[in-house]
User: Fold Nephrocystin 3-like N-terminal domain-containing protein from Candolleomyces eurysporus.
Amino acid sequence: MSASHIELLTNARNFSVNHLTFNTICSDIDAQGILEAHAARGAMYDSNERYPAPLCHPGTRQIILGRITIWYHGRQRGMKKSIMWVHAPAGYGKSATAQTVAEDLEKRFQELGFNPLGATFFFWRGSPERSNPTRFVITLAYQLAMSIPELSPHIEDAVKRHRTVLSKTMEAQLEKLIIEPFRSLDNLEEMPNRLVIIDGLDECINSDEEHRGERQYAEGQERVQVRVLGLIHKLQSHNFPLSFLILSRPEPWIKQHVETRPWKDITETEDLYLLEDHVKDVETFVRAELERIASAMNDDLGESEEQWPGESRVRRLLRQSDGHMLYASVVMKHIEDPFGNPKRLLGDILDRDYSSLVSHVVDPQSFSTLHKLYMQILRACPERVRPGMVEVLQEMLNVESRGLLYRMTPAKALDSLDRLSHRESGSAMRTLRGLHALLHLSNTPSDSFFVHRSIVEFLTTPELALEFTLKQEFSRKKMIFNGLDYISSVTPLKPGDQDLLAMGVEFGFGSWAKSDESMTETENRARLEKLLSIDLAFCIVGTLSASGSTVYAGEVRHQKPTMIQSILRTYKEFKRPGDWHGLTELAVKGRHHIELSISESCVQLLSQGAMVSGLGWFVGSYMDMVDWKDSRVVDALATMRSKHRASFDAIKRSLTTWADLSEDSWKVYNLLED
Assistant:
């Protein structure tokens, strides 16, 4: 035998031995144990780390639970949409909904003969392993191997054959640990559908980047959350018997991604905030919890206290909760303190203002859940946008306190704030991009920018908000001058400018009854001088002309232009110029300037025979203020009667719709008529 033949035989024998050794080693590997060691076990629905996990209180969240059930059973029958996205602001029961669905499905194991719950992953910002997506695919694979017996050997084989897969990219892990094992199955069409629940996607922040710096993870969380969505989309594209329930806050980047073409046809979207009757759900929860606490009190004391807490206290607590389940839950936990008196603790909650409550009355730990949640969301915003974010939030508080949200939607208010504050269009909305979980920013009506009043109270309490504390007074002064600047430069209104005008006028013509005590004398002087520089007559004529021509029928009685109301109110408030300490002479000039401007605009519009909405009300209101002593306006009315009879008759008809004019109005009009 030649040397070459001997070498070949030796190599063959060594290969055979090594191959046998490799197979022996692979067969001895505990693949399931390896997966378990690398999985985020705390992210599973029944993990000890999450105990006690939040659940929907009996009788609450019935609509969303019903819709999820219908959608999932529809998937069993082959319905097309394999993904459901449920979104809501912070504290409105998303995690409780996810947990309730998971537990309800798990209970049906025996009834169905298979486990309908495929896998769960509950992201959480406060946990290194649950906030980091690198364990996401491994955790799903580990659970799918347990919930789908047919799949288990194929996943285990993948771990044995691809020893380094656990350190590969998530995309590679998905391919080797889930997609290829599913492809190895022969009976996919006959396999029942399993539900995969992913809760708190917005809490996936890539904690590896967090350790490298706050700015990096704040800006990187958007990318990593979209990356997780990409993994889910890729997995569902293979039409495996899997459905995916995703729950998150309505972050703009998540919403934008889910609304793209590849997602629309396969995704059912549910807005939990709009879907449920949150006030009713909170009432159900609060009444049941208070009854339970009262019963425990009676047992401890051995006496009956049927009157506590009483309907009035319950109603007050419900008003404070305002449909915010997390707030109500925090209050219940606080008053159930085993070392405290529930009566006194509930009374403190109801009778103290928030800053006093959290500073002096309530154990700081009681509201720590809310405060940590708010702070986490705020600090997740990039550092470079925070100064502008605080500035916009301060402006929003001022807009809300002036009641302007009753006249415009939050989105339109933000657009007007940008223009009023000389910012690029859309700046405010971009600055608040990371705060959609706390704010109402849509184009639908809302009486507040903030999801719950506790957010405002948190932001205005320095001990809690720290660097995010809102200083409303500083912002208010700035907006007063911005409003005056806008009014001074306003030209005849364009369509769509009414909201901006209303905002500019509301701040520019705010309280003028006396000097603003929050301002220095120099600032008050500047405010008066700015008022004197404005061509108010031009503004009034432009505003009324922008209302459009109209015949003065009954419906016009509700069309009181905002600017005109504010100017008339300001004129009334200038009756005591002496309240402008040290600036009396300038205040007298301000009042005279407004009076001349109103008179001039009345004369101009009446002489032209203008038929514009609100003119009759404006003229009548002003003449009532001066007791009909302005002969120029009376003469203009007479001229209008003789030269523009139709306009005069229209004004007279409109006057009959105004109940707030004095009898003098009727006398003058009757005289003119005669």
